[in-house]
Amino acid sequence: MKKLLFFILLGIATPVFGQNYAITYQKNSNGTPIEIQNAIVVYTNTNQTWLTTQLIINQKAEFPYEQTIIDRTNDHFSQIAALSTKKYCATIDSTTIAKQTFELLPETKTILGHLCKKAKTSINSNTIELWYTNELVVKGAPGLLGQNLGLVLETVRNGNFTVEATKIEKVDSFPKIPEIKETLDGLSYKDLLWKSRFTTIPLFKNQIINFSEESNKSKDEPTDSIFRFANGTIAARKIKIPEIKVGSQIFVDVTEQSNGDAYDRTGALFLIPTNKSNSFLDGLKKGVKSLPLYTNGNGKEYQGVVATPNYNPIVELMRFYTPFGIKQYNHIQLKDKTWEEQVVYRQDISELRTLLTNQEVWIGINIGNYDKGGHKVTANITIHNEEETKAVPTQILPLFCTNNVMEMAGQEYGTMFNSNKGLEVTFTLNKPLKNAKLRYITTGHGGWENGDEFVPKKNTLILNHKEIFSFIPWRQDCGSYRLFNPASGNFNNGLSSSDYSRSNWCPGTATNPIYIELGDLDAGTHTFQVKIPQGQPEGNSFSSWNVSGVLIGE
After folding, report:
1. What is the pLDDT of residue 31?
2. Residues paired with 342 in a beta bridge
């Protein structure tokens, strides 16, 4: 990318080319004015047109903001974006305006004392009507559309959104027009401008998640600040998260490719709470035996799956499932099948703001596998501020997570549902919690055709010994993702393994949380229980359930 060298000339007037005009425009939606404080202002003369806003002129605009200059002498226009007080980008286009076509209509009307003609066009299924005048011998418009018709004094989109001129003034000169020194190509410009509208926090880039004893060396000696655990199947790092305004939208994205492993695998992007004396990080560094144990009478011990007074389980930001061998096995040829190169998972996690905002946090990512090549992943958090919000701050309590992300270091599978007790956790609220809800993720696994992965099973949730919710988690759209699964097995009945419906997951998808309303919870001790009729083992095959729950309330 070219180095951008561009500055704003302060106080230098534009040379006069005939009469200079300043036209102020107001936006209206269904007849109601909007953005009164940021009216569009167009400066124009016979040789040049400048599109700006009132806030930019008054130096009160928030970054990023954009301005457009039409150079009628050289028949091109420039778009200039201020990304910050010191960072700008620009591009030049000589074709967009020239390619515009309009239907010229016979209707006329008078706007601000000037006779206007009507033109119409369609853009992306939107009908746009423009009213323009040729009486002032200058051209211009409040957007790129219609710049060469004449002076556009009103545009109407779909009959209900209007940008109309409210004032036309003669002026001596144009104020503070930006000067361009170097430019980007159009796509690079749009990409840089778009990305400047939100904050991106890189978590992992082309990170290998594989099974290798060599990877255990980075438990104490991180590579590029990234620690590797569980024989390389977990990568973790500490990340500084900036302050996130209440009501902002927060997303995570993960991009995955096979680097050798051909199978569908459970993956998770997760946060490790460290606000208590014991944490999952201790288990990663010292082994699963350092984590608190949960038992339910079935003879097994489950490490680090439920909250205790001194421990919080991990919080899954996203649970995802790798497809069968995407990218690495794209050489497998089938007629009319063009395999995807990567799978991208993206999910809204705005409800978890309290756990992230303005602090250093440990973020981990895992894919359970026993392959030396494993998988390659990239992950990011993006923060998108909202201008207005009625959201209120929340309190978040991690309650349980049976997704055994340390499987390759000996963490037990989620098989605790084969007893009447199932999964049970007791927690204490120091203060009442209003409008509480449970963020619940559940997927069933194992057992081949008779296992819980392929058999619908009801999940029952119980709060303080009273059933509050039950449902059957089930995905029937797995066949939609066939092109992500080049190495998926094909059967005599014409189906691929990746086509089969499953217990709330498909190879190549993320599993969305569901939100269970709990109402207001009093201060004191509460008990939460999850019951699932887990299937019985069949030979060496067994069923298990990955469930996680986070309590959120005001």
Report:
1. 82
2. none
Decide if 317 contacts 271 (C-beta within 8 A): yes
pLDDT at 182: 80
Which candidate, 347, 382, 362, places its Cα nearest to that of 201?
382
Q: Which of 509, 534, 519, 530 is nearest to 445 (CA)?
A: 534
- The whole-chain average pLDDT of the chain stands at 93
- Per the omega criterion (within 30 degrees of 0), is the bond before 456 cis? no
DSSP conformation class of 294: E
Q: Are 443 and 319 in contact (CB under 8 A)?
A: yes
**Whether pLDDT at 8 is above 50:** no
* DSSP letter string, 464-517: TTEEEEEE---B--GGGGGGG-TT--B-TTS-BGGGS-BSS--TT-EEPPEEEE
Cα 237 to Cα 213: distance, rounded to the nearest angstrom: 19
Q: Could you read off the pLDDT of 122-175 as tens digits, one per residue?
A: 999 999 999 999 999 999 999 999 999 999 999 999 999 999 999 999 999 998
SS3 annotation, 300-351? CCEECCECECCECCCEEEEEEECCCCCCCCCCCCCCCCCCCCCEEEEEECHH
Residue 332, Cβ neighbours under 10 Å: how many?
14
Residue spans of alpha helices (H) in 410-551: none
- Phi, psi dihedral angles at 290 (to 5 degrees): -85, -5
To 5 degrees, how large is the angle CA 375–CA 379–CA 385?
Answer: 165
Rg (CA), the chain: 30
> Do the Cβ atoms of 6 and 179 come closer than 8 Å?
yes
Position 13 scores a pLDDT of 39
Q: How many whole angstroms from its chain centre is CA 205?
A: 16
Give tens-digit pLDDT for 52-68. Answer: 999 999 889 999 999 99
Map residue 146 onto helix, strand or coil.
coil
Largest distance between two CA atoms of the chain: 91
pLDDT, one tens digit per residue, over 449-464 is: 789 999 999 999 999 9
Q: Are 323 and 481 in contact (CB under 8 A)?
A: yes
Task: Report d(CA 69, CA 78) in Å as an integer.
Answer: 5
User: How many Å apart are CA 204 and CA 378, to the nearest integer?
Assistant: 5
Question: 50: how many CB neighbours lie within 10 A of its CB?
Answer: 22
Predicted pLDDT at 388 = 65
Q: What is the 3-state secondary structure (H, E, C) of 254-297?
A: EEEEECCCCCCCEEEEEEECCCCCECHHHHHHHCHHHCCEECCC
Cα 339 to Cα 328: distance, rounded to the nearest angstrom: 11
Alpha-carbon distance of 37 to 387, in angstroms, equals 14
Q: How far apart are CA 505 and CA 509, in angstroms?
A: 7
Q: Using an 8 Å Cβ cutoff, are 178 and 69 in contact? A: yes
Residue 335, both tokens: 């007629």
